[in-house]
Amino acid sequence: MNMNIFVHYMLDVRNSIIDKNMDKSVGYVYILTSPKTDCIKIGGTDYPPLKRIKEINTTEPYKSLAPWSLADFRQVKDWRKVEYNLHYIFRSNLDTSIDNQKELFHVPIQDASKILDEIDPDQIVHKPKIDRMFQDERFLNCISNLFVFTGLMNWLNLQGAWTFVLFPSTSGGRYFTINIGPHEVAFSTLGRKKLKQQNMILVDKLIFDFGQVINWIMRHNGTITVDRYATALPRSTSIIFEGSFDDVNEFLSLDGVRRALIAYWNEALIRMKEKNTLSVYARYHNWNAVAKLHRLIEKME
After folding, report:
1. What whole-number distance in Å separates Cα of residue 224 and Cα of residue 237?
2. Which helix (H) or strand (E) holds 174?
3. How far is residue 301 from each of residues 37, 133, 167, 238, 296, measured CA to CA in Å?
4. What pTM does this model have?
5. How many angstroms separate the CA atoms of 265 and 92, rounded?
6. Mean pLDDT, the chain cut into blocks of 10 residues (301 residues total)
7. I need a surface site. Which of 80, 88, 136, 138 has the fewest CB within 10 A?
8. Going edge to edge, which strands form the sheet with 236-242?
9. Which helix (H) or strand (E) holds 190?
10. Do 245 and 141 contact (CB within 8 A), yes or no?
11. CA 87 to centroid of chain Cα atoms
12. Strand 69-76 vs strand 162-166: parallel, antiparallel, or unpaired?
């Protein structure tokens, strides 16, 4: 074998091994709270917190303090290292009154969240995309408004069943896509030279009860399609219209939009919770973007 070819082959093998090892280290650190204790649980996992929380709520010694819910979280490149550092920082606050555990701490949630904010930026998964979102003021304002408007932050425990994907390459590029289960429920495309930004929101069919909304959509070169997605729930209605993020905010403010949106999204989320399954898009979910948005929205309230 030619020596140069051999060297390149060995480099490819080495890089492949490194990539696989890195993938094994990628995971989540989280903070859980429960109404039954003033302690918080600080832990880590290599699979989505949705699954881990279910285990915690049904396994001692944490079961007796259930229900635990997700208060804060980060997806990191080496979750064991980050988890160890968090435990070390709060070691003097460890609750020693409960046997067989090393993850309950007498620490205010605000203090623990502050430490999560101080995690080495190199550890944060998808950081460039998050920075890009926070540098685009109009996009950030719109997506924050959408999360508040839809109440998605009330479903933090169900992340993975619903997903938020930043700057996917879908159909020539998008700012974001939100999925619930097997299909998308909202997206905005990147504007191109001759193509205006397209925005999609999936709502319930009762949107047809609001004539002013229909007229607004038509004025923005929009379309309304019933049952566009084969995997969607009955009465799903896809609305697509042209416009900027300012137009999206205007659309959301129209009378009837919230009612139609919540009717569909909440039903879809409840069904995903009952099924206890993750979305097929779970691996694309941007946990850190949601965490940062969550912190931003908390400060706004």
Report:
1. 7
2. strand 174-180
3. 25, 20, 27, 30, 9
4. 0.88
5. 43
6. 43 43 79 97 94 93 96 96 97 95 96 96 96 97 98 95 96 95 97 89 98 98 95 96 98 98 97 94 96 94 75
7. 88
8. 162-166, 174-180, 183-189, 198-204, 236-242, 223-226
9. none
10. yes
11. 25
12. unpaired
Query: Are 236 and 229 contacting, i.e. CB atoms less than 8 angstroms apart?
Result: yes
CA dist., res. 84 & res. 150, Å (int): 35
Exposure string of 156-166, with b = 16+ CB inside 10 Å and e = fewer, is bbbbbbbbbbb
Q: Which two tokens stand for residue 173?
A: 């590029």
Token pair recorded at residue 75: 């997806």
Number of CB atoms found within 10 A of residue 277's CB: 15
Cα distances (Å, whole numbers) of residue 91 to 62, 80, 102, 107, 160: 19, 16, 9, 10, 31
- Which residue ranges make up each domain of the chain? 3-123, 127-300
Q: What distance in Å separates the CA atoms of residue 29 and residue 21, rounded to the nearest whole number?
A: 18
Separation of alpha carbons 280 and 246, rounded Å: 31
- Sequence length of the chain is 301
